[in-house]
Amino acid sequence: AKSAGGNRSELADPEADARAITRHGLTTALPTALERGEFFIEYQPLVHLGDGSVRGAEALVRWLHPQHGVLGPDRFIPLAEHTGLIVPLGRWVLEESIRQARAWRERHAGQAAGPLRINVNLSPCQLTHPGLVQDTVDILERAGVTPDALCLEVTESALIGADDDLLKPLRRLAEMGVDIALDDFGTGYSNLANLRRLPVSILKLDRSFTQGMQQFPADPVDLKIVEGIVSLAHSLDLAVTVEGVETGAQAEQLRILGCDTAQGWYYARPGPPERLHDLALVDTTG
Ligand code: C2E
Ligand code: CA
Ligand code: CA
Ligand code: CA
Prior knowledge:
- The protein has 286 residues and is of the alpha/beta class.
- 44% of the residues lie in helices and 19% in strands.
- It is built from twelve helices and nine strands.
- The protein has helices spanning 8-11, 14-35, 73-83, 86-107, 124-128, 132-143, 156-159, 164-176, 207-211, 220-235, 248-256, 273-276, and strands at 39-48, 54-65, 69-71, 117-121, 150-155, 179-185, 202-205, 239-242, 261-262.
- An eight-stranded mixed β-barrel has the order 1-2-4-5-6-7-8-9.
- Strand 8 (239-242), helix 11 (248-256) and strand 9 form a beta-alpha-beta unit.
- The termini are far apart.
- Mean pLDDT is 88; it is low at 1-9 and 280-286.
- Residues 23-284 form the EAL domain.
- It comes from Streptomyces dangxiongensis.
- This is EAL domain-containing protein.
């Protein structure tokens, strides 16, 4: 903490100081971390609620820090966004995940219930970066996979009030056959009518909705809200994915409500790519 300005409470709080140092330390270590290959990706399956089959996986980045051990994205993605490192880091995540998508597809050629796909998170800074479309095209070509192997997840808040310039690269990618998912849906107060304007094909319902389904039967108001979102989404030809499914009861409620795909600890925690190769997952109807 700075000594100028006389913020006593901050100076008197050694924990706040330690946090500030760690933050600073992490920020300066980020660029070298990328060069040294300290980042790695875990994958979490996306399961079709109707038949329980695995249809894809979300790529979730982690940092194996030499001193602090494994750090989750919430610890360093905001720092990477702040410093601009998110652009090369995001490109690396994309390249690495697409490589996995290729390996995964080859292994399951003709055996999977549908074309397997990898979901990759895109931060708002990547959206405004002029290289996004070309980088994505290059990465797909280098890996030799078709664009339908990729789904890009963009948060609802990143697209609120988005003008056409911001939507243009997403539209280009969608036209190529890349799926765009609206992540954390339901948290951003977006105008539902606005959805028609966005080049998205999937709504990813925020975990807070799934949490409301914990008891059986679930809270009737929660049920009504999710039911409304699902019917709106389907009428707009959008698929609905739910995240944070931790119990079989939740999975069952969400299936009855018409949600299409689910993700959560009930099926599998995020794990190494090798685990994706095992498609035999828990029965969702149990
Ligand atoms: P998100 O995109 O909403 O990802 C879902 C988060 O929920 C992940 O946290 C996942 O591990 C966690 N999760 C999955 N199933 C369950 C469950 O059943 N219960 C609970 N309580 N949590 C569950 P994680 O891996 O810590 O990622 C946090 C956020 O970091 C992500 O939220 C995403 O916004 C961001 N992130 C992760 N990887 C990347 C990346 O490569 N690029 C960017 N820009 N952001 C990323
Ligand atoms: Ca996501
Ligand atoms: Ca999410
Ligand atoms: Ca989230």
